[in-house]
Amino acid sequence: MVYGIVPPYLLARIAELDDKKFAHAARSARRALEQADPMRAARLLFSLDDDNTLVVEVGDGPNRTISDAANAETLPGMEVRSEGEEPTGDPAADEAYDGLGATFALFSEVYKRNSINGAGLPLDATVHYGEDYDNAFWDGERMVFGDGDGEIFRRFTISLSVIGHELTHGVTQYTAALEYQGQSGALNESVSDVFGALVEQYTRNQTAAEASWLIGEGLFTDEVEGTALRSMKAPGTAYNDDVLGQDPQPGHLDDYIETDDDNGGVHLNSGIPNHAFYLVAEALGANAWERAGQIWYDTLTGPLDTKATFAEFATATIEAAEARYGGSSDEADAVRAGWSGVGVVLEKSGSQTRSRSTS
Amino acid sequence: MTEARSETTAVWTILVVRTGGFAGLRREWRVSSTDEPSVDWPALIDACPWTTRYPPSRSNDRFVWRIEAVAPPRTKKATLPESSLTGSWAVLVDQVKTVTAR
Fold first, then answer.
1. Which chain B residue has the Cα nearest residue A217?
2. Is residue B59 part of a domain?
3. What is the pLDDT of residues B54-99, one digit of tens each?
4. Which residues of B touch A157 (CB under 8 A)?
5. Is B102 among the domain residues?
6. Has A109 been annotated as catalytic?
7. A135 and B64 in contact by Cβ < 8 A?
8. Domain that holds residue B63
9. Domain locations in chain A?
10. What number does CATH give the domain A64-174?
11. Omega before residue B73 within 30° of 0, cis
12. What is the pTM of this model?
C-alpha cells in the first residue's frame, strides 16, 4: 500500500490506461480529473483487491508552493518549490514544504478537512523573509518564516510546531475567526498552539504521555537557557535566561495578564487555554489528536462568537464533547476537569452550561 | 514659530517597545535626545503621524510596536502594527535602535 501525491499529468496518464487490469484505476483517475479544481492536488491510495486488481482511491492532497524572499521583506518572493517537485536542498524551503504537508495530513486524515478553507486552498509559504528576522507569521494569505538572528533564534522552519501553528491561523480565519485581541485573541493563539503540537505528535506517532508539549522546540540557539518558546504542559517554564528573562506565560486564570501590549497579551494568556487542553489530553490518554483534538476541532468549526471569552470557549468545548461522546462520557468529564484545572469554572453541565464572567 | 523653537530645545525621551511576534517576547529601546545631539530628534518626531489610528491587522503573530516621545509636558504615543512601521516611523525607530546599540 503506497500513499502518493499525484500530479495532474500522472492522473491523466492513469486515466488513459486501456488495460482491463487497471480499469478501476483509470475510472478513478478520470473521476478525479472531472471533479478536480485545476488548483487542487489529489492523494491516491493504491492497493490490490482479492483478485489482484489494482485499486486506486482518490482523496485530498495538498497543493504547496514555497517561495524565497531572499532576505527582503517583499512577498511572495521567488518560487522555489511547488507541489510534487524534488527537494531544493535549502533546509528552510524543504522544511516548510514538509511541514505544510504534515499539517495538511493531520487536518485531512484525522478531521477530514481539505486544507485551510476546507475546499483545497493552496498552501503558500515564504522562507528567508527579512534580514535576521526573528519571527514567523500568517499574513492572511500565506505563511512567512524568518531565518532568525543566529544568536537567539535559529530559522523558524526548524520546528514543525511553528509551521503547524501558522497554518492553523489560516484554519481559524476560515472557521471561528476569533478576533485577535484580548481573550479571543489568546484563544486564537492557543488553538494554533494546540494543533501545532498535534501536528508534531501525529507525525511522530507520539501519545499524549510521550509528547513534549513544547511549542517551538529547537528554535533557540545553544546560547539561550531554554528548551522552547512555550510549554503547554507547564506554562511559564519553557525558558529562563539572563537575556530573555523567564517565560511569562500563565497557566491559570488567577494569573491572567492585563496588558495593552501584544494585542492584549495574546501570546501570554494563551498559556491558560493551552494548559486546559493539555489537562484534557492527559486525562484521556492515548493519542491527543483523537478525542481531545476532535473536541477542539468541533469547537473551532462549530458555533462560536468571534469575540469568545475563555469561559464561552470552554462552554463550547463541553457542548462539543457532549454532542460527540455523550453528556456523562469520559470525554465530557475530562473537558470539564481541564477547564476547572485552569480556573475557568462553569456553573452547570450539559446544554444549560453557562460560565461565570471571566473577562 | 515659538512651538518649533521649543521643540528644538526640549529634551526628548523616546521609548520604543516591540511586543508580540510568534515568540511573544518583549523588547524595548529607550534614548534621550541628549544621547546623540547630532540627530535632529524633534524633526524625526514631528515627521511621524502620531494621530493616525491603524486598523486591526489581518495578520497573526506579527510584531506590535508602541512608540512614545516625551518632553514634559508634551507626550506623544502611538501603537502600530508591524506592517505600518514604514516611512517616518521606520526612520525614527531605526534611529532609536541605532543609538541604543552604541
1. B23
2. yes
3. 887 889 999 999 999 999 999 999 999 999 999 999 999 999 999 9
4. none
5. no
6. no
7. no
8. 2-97
9. 2-60, 64-174, 182-352
10. 3.10.170.10
11. yes
12. 0.86
Which chain A residue lies closest to B86 (C-alpha atoms)? Answer: A73
Active site residue A267: yes
Residues from chain B that touch A135, judged by Cβ atoms under 8 A, are 21-23, 61-63
Going through chain A in order, the beta strands assigned E by DSSP cover 2-6, 41-48, 54-61, 64-68, 78-82, 123-129, 136-138, 143-146, 214-215, 230-231, 240-241, 245-246
Structure ipTM? 0.85
A70 neighbors A130 (Cβ within 8 angstroms): no
Please state, in angstroms and rounded to a whole number, the distance separating the CA atoms of residues B72 and B88. Answer: 23
Instruction: Write out the CATH class of domain A182-352.
Output: mainly alpha
Q: Kindly state the cell numbers that stand for A25.
A: 484505476
Task: List, for residues A220-234, the tens digit of each pLDDT value.
Answer: 999 999 999 999 999
Least Cα separation, residue A248 to chain B (angstroms): 9
Q: Using an 8 Å Cβ cutoff, are A25 and A56 in contact?
A: yes
CB contact under 8 A, B22 and A139: no
Query: Distance of alpha carbon A88 from its chain centroid, rounded?
Result: 24
B-chain CB neighbours of A216 within 8 Å are 22-23
Spatial distance between the Cα atoms of A187 and A357, rounded to a whole number of angstroms: 16
Residue B57 to residue A266, Cβ atoms within 8 A: no
Number of folded domains that form chain B: 1
Q: Between B21, B59, B66, which is nearest A139 by CB? A: B59
User: What's the pLDDT at A4?
Assistant: 39
